Amino acid sequence: MTTNTARNAAADGAAGQSDRHGGTSVVLQDLSRYFGATRALDGLSIELAPGELVALLGPSGCGKTTALRIVAGFETATAGSVLIDGKDISSVPASRRDMGMVFQSYSLFPNMSALDNVGFGLRMRKMGTSERRAKAAGLLDMVGLGPQAKQYPHQLSGGQQQRVALARALAIEPRVLLLDEPLSALDAKVRLQLREQIRTLQQQLGTTTLFVTHDQEEALSMADRVGVMRQGKLEQIAAPDELYADPATAFVAEFVGVMNRIPGELQAGGTVTALGSTAPVKAGSPDLSDPAVDVLIRPEGLRLEVVEHGNGIVTTRTFLGSVTRVGVLLDGDVAVQVDKASTEAAALAPGTSVSVTFPPEAVHVAPRRADAS
Amino acid sequence: MAQVTGLTAVATDAADGPPPSSSGRRESLPIWRWVILLLTAAFFLIPLISALRFSGIKAFGSVVSQSGFTSALGLSARLALITTVITLALMLPSTVYVHLRLPKLRRLLEGITILPIVIPPVVLIVGVLQIAPGFLKSTPYLLALEYVILAMPFAYRAIDAGLRALDLKTIVEASNSLGAGWTTTLLRVILPNLRTALLSATVLTVALVLGEFTMASLDLYETFPDWIYVNSQTSGQISVAASLLALIVTWLFLMAITVIGSRQSRKTGGGSVTLFTVARQETRGN
User: Which of A124, A157, A178 sits opposite B180 (nearest CB)?
Assistant: First the structure.
């Protein structure tokens, strides 16, 4: 098969997929999973719109992989259900769920060539040999591995193997694509390339996708919405920009992006004082009995001015393009990072005395860390 | 990502880096290697050469025409076939199941499978004869069931080594997610990737059955080793020639399986066939 023909076959397959499924809705309804006394999932509820890519983000052990495996059919929920296009599939075995999955570890069948790996799911669906091979070749072309069709997994690099695994998962025109940290075993450069490739293909095919990762950069750059999980519960699910700009809880605020912790004092009336400023405390902050807290502010949320005898001294300066991240050591040995426009950061040499403040806008607070003051 | 299991690591792409830095050491040590090799060769070959000289070449020709030879060899071959089939049919699914679903029981299974080595065959056979139903006691195929027990430690270890070299859980789940049920997954995904391990298990089982004497003797059946023993009472030369013949045939059989298995598995990155180790090749970088 020529490359063009193969591409057309892949494109036809993609079009067929959109026509056939028109995107699939997925609902995780109050899912709980217990392993003995351990609660891996605790009433998780998420709705994925047709064609949407949702990333589940969280630290190790937060339950994100368990949730994915329940959707795939490899785990059984202790309580709750998974609905695909409104139908409960909890009792449907994994082999009949029509879900394509890409695993964290290399999952290609070692005894099959790349082409046969991609064609395996089609073979299970009784597709004829010539049609199957044409479609598999088309998908391999789509992921840029047409020339490697006859190679065996051990002859492919890690990145190539994951691309074959992606083609294999897409070959069956899955109702839902499940990605279980597929990039975590790859080096940074390959990870970036494959990240973009997955997102582009997912958007082209319109496949509803659930993506599990612990890498916030991956989640924020690829997903339509990101769900942040902690201890089996969903802390917040929102579009990446909203998650970053308006975190619902102190945990999300600190887990997503860079966050400064500045010692402050809770005041009556739901306000907090730090660095000489007073600001209202955001809803979603934990209830704190001790008034000594940390105020959570992002580097771009702090103001910095050069003044003599200010409350801090510049220690580092990192050029990030249009902005420069300035490290400041505040009075009381509190280190913070402040973003300044690079055009204004030239005067902020290490050792410069500066004043760091924050605007009186609502902030998150968290229990004070022992090492913060 | 490196996926090397077992004692034998298969060499990776030579273009990936310089050859091992032991080349200097290799040049300084050949004499020791040769001494060890020659001593070992002498240990094995001197008895064989002596046996060959004792029996003479002519005795090989008359072995086949001896009474009982064909039936004894035939019985041993049938027992080897039956034992291998039953052993693989029992050990493969159970070992796969333990790997997938009950990994905590692996140590227990290892312990259980080593029992036939610890318990003397005499004890085993006395126990079997006590509990075996009558219709089995009257057939030589009872021996096959006993040999299954004897072969268990070897077959289990060969299959276990093969399974350890695979990311079994992931490829089974991948197969399931693509629409394959359990039977299809076992036949199309697991079995082909265990070809090397199954060959090793087969080799060990066949070798064991062709050489087992005690159980057959106590069960009063004339398998090939028993025939050799009985004939040694009447014609020492023919008996020794038959032993050598059995040794050579078994050795050729082992070599054939090893070479064929290694050639096939090298193609798919399955590494080389050794009796207890199965090594996978490494993935080429990222």
Answer: A124
